[in-house]
Amino acid sequence: MDNGLLVVISGPSGAGKGTICKRLKEEIKDLKVSVSATTRKPREGEIEGTSYYFINEEEFIKRINNEEFLEYAKVYGNYYGTPKREVFKELQDGNDIILEIDIQGALQVKKNYPKGVFIFILPPSLTELNNRIEKRGTDSKEVILKRMQCAYDELDYAFEYDYVVVNDEVEAAVEKIKIIILAEKNRAIRKKAIISKIREV
Amino acid sequence: MDNGLLVVISGPSGAGKGTICKRLKEEIKDLKVSVSATTRKPREGEIEGTSYYFINEEEFIKRINNEEFLEYAKVYGNYYGTPKREVFKELQDGNDIILEIDIQGALQVKKNYPKGVFIFILPPSLTELNNRIEKRGTDSKEVILKRMQCAYDELDYAFEYDYVVVNDEVEAAVEKIKIIILAEKNRAIRKKAIISKIREV
């Protein structure tokens, strides 16, 4: 019986998942963060076991075959994955753990752990998303157009999630997620142990 | 598309549903309360349309056959029922509405309106429930024993609800329900309109 919550923060690129997760970690001091495994080489300043678990490709593929990942993906030739064992250990210890992840990853997690709390972060509008991506100044017009088309299509995935939070103002979005986490602790599916206890006394 | 929430507060007799609902209505000023229809004769001080809608049995049975009730029951020879039309009108107007109801009634509501938010109120322990019922001083030992057996069995229904809230301290329970109502406003199933709107801009 797990006592902690697995909170999955996901949504289209540019919706502001990263900023929201950073603020959540600052505000909820007991919230644990999942550390991913990767076959990518460490960059300067990255710390083994904090930034990532750095492993080689042979080891990564062995772990895929052993179903040791909640989700994994290959991006630009490197593997990235969320280790099941660590996440489940935190949940069993009664700790809440947060996972910031793209949509494909979140759907894999849902398949492997449907009891998670799946939150889809949305930009207030596609125009605003376009502005945010343009402001970064890192993408060509063609890439921006492709990203926008992708975001448009990805909105359909919102209905595979439990909650949808519009990120028009970061603090308001963070507040909503904090409330969702508190409410989720009262879900009937998480109360089996309490009901057994009430019967005993 | 409904914008309001139907919040169903239910649970075994003696769990404290009534006190909790009274406090919720005081604290959330926009929260609407469903008015039941009944074939019972009005008591002194009861007001038509506020306490109940008082109708005769012929009319009540006609409405049952027309499926005009979200739920209904016959108790000690009188019918009681929750009119669909009024509840749905409030929801469409964007108002949240609360319904305090026994377990059988809540399960009927769930069948007719699964989008509702179903909250099961529990006593902190069966010993405490026993104390509360004894304190009322209205029931014989046999009746108390029967009530306790009933409450024991009814605990199983908790898993048909969305949330379980233990009423060990009224204010804490009320606070939890307020948080649940806030969180539920972010459920993906209630966000179809917003996602269409985001696509437009």
Structural class of chain A comes to alpha/beta
What oligomeric state best describes the polypeptide chains here? homodimer
Count the beta strands of chain A: 9
CATH architecture of the largest domain in chain A: 3-Layer(aba) Sandwich
Low-confidence stretches of chain A: none
The largest sheet of chain A is: 5 strands, parallel
User: What would CATH call the homologous superfamily of the largest domain in chain A?
Assistant: P-loop containing nucleotide triphosphate hydrolases
The helix count of chain A comes to 8
Using the CA coordinates, give the radius of gyration of chain A: 18 Å
What is the number of domains of chain A? 2
What is the topology, as strand order, of the major beta sheet of chain A? 2-7-1-8-9
The percent range for helix content of chain A is 40-55%
**Shape, principal axes of CA atoms of chain A:** globular
Write down the CATH topology of the largest domain in chain A: Rossmann fold
Largest interface: A-B, 36 and 36 residues
Mean pLDDT score of chain A? 92
Amino- and carboxy-terminal Cα gap of chain A: 21 Å
